[in-house]
Amino acid sequence: MTRPSLNIVVLGLSLSSSWGNGHATTYRALISALARRGHRVLFLEREVAWYAGHRDLENPPYCNLEFYSDLDGLTRYAAEIRSADAVIIGSFVPDGIAVIDWVLERAKGCVGFYDIDTPATLGALRRQDCSYLSTSQIPRFELYLSFTGGPTLETLNRNWGATAPHALYCSADLNAYKPDARREQRWHLGYLGTYSADRQPTIEKFVIEIAERQPDKNFVVAGAQYPASIRWPRNVERIEHVPPSQHGEFYASLGWALNVTRADMRAAGYSPSVRLFEAAACGTPIISDEWAGLGSFFQPDREIIVARNAEDVAAALNLPDTVRIRIGQCARRRIVIEHTSDHRAEELESYLLASRTRRAVRHPTAEDSCRPFTRDSNIDGEWNGKTL
Questions:
Q1: What pTM, to 2 d.p., does this model score?
Q2: Higher pLDDT, 363 or 13
Q3: Which terminus of the chain, N or C, has less C-beta within 10 A?
């Protein structure tokens, strides 16, 4: 059967700038994979000074990227919204509540919400201070795509009225993330991530404390917004920003990559970081903090090392190179089998096509509504041999 080509509009936090956010690399991997599958994507990004001043992608080859200055500026794209097969609004979109209402009033196709920050979103909704989504809007989406899986999906359905919650985890684009045997190890352990107050205590234990205890080893912490007040040991190098185009080189220069999870995502579980998949795709062995569901993505001690304390990190750093390299190879194999951007694009495609089928069943054409129900009808959307 020929795969249908979908016309998709995405309104997200940022595609053009990866500075200080993990959304851009996630959208880039997913949308480029959608394009490879023959779908057309228009990405609408709010013009924000912070991202405008730190753009590292202005003309993506796999989609149309347009900027709008405010809600009124979105009116230029009303026709595209109305004609789209699917419109997906992401978390943390500026004025997101108003944007969602505007889209729901105009879209004729499937409207979905892509929550790249599900635990943070639900926490904000409980506190009634979420600026980009309201509780009344959740049941109006045909799809709720969540970065967090596991029990959270049932919570979204039962407590918040999400009609079709699905996990749509982050991924790695194998075209951008791959092993590089030519690059020499520069650091024994490295961490890539924007500063976060709730992650910093783990950075203190797993990087700063270990660096002080092992002065013969080199460490690196790369990412924006770290306070100048942090005192880094002399053997910890600081890099303010590594653009996505250099992520592969960065990971290939590490003996071990450290993964540290935000507190709310660790509490929810089943919330893998995009950096986790990217490092693994490069064949770089990973040391991760512990959280529920981690074992469903990588097998502990075979594909990843789980650190519960600083001693676990220190022990990993002293493993033989043969063991370290094998762990990285096993992690990459898991990525190739289950967690590439092509996997995610295929999953999203299946969700969108299922939504189209549900819509057709709920709202049949005049011709189909006059047809009698026969034994040839089935729940997959066929009626008398005709695919709805």
A1: 0.87
A2: 13
A3: N
